[in-house]
Amino acid sequence: MAEIIDSRLTLEFDAGTDESGERIFTYKRFNNVKTDAEDTSLQSIANVLGPLQEFPMVGIKRTNEYDISE
To answer: Nearest 5°: phi and psi at 18?
Structure first.
């Protein structure tokens, strides 16, 4: 059975466009998130932190790492 061993929260921000019109995204990553933290709790935290940043927040992602060895 797979066991979760690490979790990370990533906030994605729209930093505008470059000289060729391509969108630029920046990211803030928070490592070592408690593996048993509820997704709704992380979303609430992200929604509080997002407006405090320089650019508008456009995405919230959670990445979990699992140990699948036997």
So the answer is: -90, -175
